Amino acid sequence: MTRTTTGGDGSTGVPGHRVLVVGAARSGTTWVATCLGRTVGAAYVHEPDNFDWVPFAARARAGLGLMPALEPGGDAPEPYVRMWESAFRARRPSALGRLATAVYARTPARAKSALLEPGGRSSSLRLQVATRLARPQSAPAGTVHPVVKSVNVPLAVQWVAARFEPRVLVVRRHPLDVLASRLSFGTAFFENALGYVDPRAVAVRLERWKAPARPTTTDRYEHFVWLAGFTLSAFDEAAQTNPDFHVVDYEEIGSDPLPHFRRLVADLGLEWSAGCEEFLTSSNTAGAGFETKRVAARQTGVWRERLTDEQLSVARRILSRFPIAGRYPDLTG
Question: Which domain holds residue 289?
Answer without folding.
Answer: 15-327
